[in-house]
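Researcher: Predict the fold of ABC transporter permease.
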Amino acid sequence: MESYALLIAATLNAGTVLAIASLGLLINEKAGIVNLGAEGMMLCAAIAGFATVVHTGSDVMGFLAGMGAGALMAAIFGGLVIWLNTNQYATGLALSLFGAGFSAFAGISYVQEKIPERPSFAVPYLSDIPLLGSALFRQHPLVYLTVAFALALIWWLYRTRSGLILRSVGESPESAHALGYPVRLIRLGAVVLGGALCGLAGAYISVIYTPLWVEGMVAGKGWIALALTTFATWRPARVLLGAYLFGGVTMLQFHLQGIGVEVPSQFLTMLPYVATIVVLALISRNPRWIRINMPASIGKPFYPGS
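Model: Structure tokens for ABC transporter permease follow.
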């Protein structure tokens, strides 16, 4: 039973990375912007966060550095696609490729570096509950904050005026512009916030999840986060559920190896990506369901003068 408790704990840890990044990308797409640069932003944020912790010893500073790196890259992306009307998909791919190359270059001197020992976290009293305590209540505080943020995002998007404005920009930017809302600035704000969250996810990987730096350590999590927004049909609660589902699939490979299941390691490693493809294939069988939930103007440029 203890092994299953460890599997649940590892699932929450792995799912948190995907949840943070996916919620950021969801905010982007609710405003009508598709950012395929998540992988590159997360990589740059991972090295920024790790390097900051190496020099300062502060996890908080590392998280802030990661968020800053993600927000900066997202702001550049936003300037290109929102004001210069470059193609969102091509610009996002370019950002991802740039992030992969730049992080590898910037991280050369940090490959052998070590950061201070991570403190252990536990919720008083609850962490002492047999099995359940070790599974649920000995996580990093950011795990619980991510759940709280997802709940707050649901309330904000569907219960507040500003959330309604953001969704209206993603549905019909022309109508929002006609009502006097600064569509470009709203989209830029959404893109920067989404980038900051992707940056936080990247920093979490290098500071908490696997406290080290190696080239390409994000290992496709940015692409899975992008797929999750579609899997969740742009609903924050489903994003959270999907993130933990994919986190569980990722951790299952190590659990199976630990209990002696004789399956080729290459097959286990590809499980998360196979699961992503299968889920997207199943969802695509019902295009009407996607159309109902998808922001109507997602991926489409907006020209204020037209």
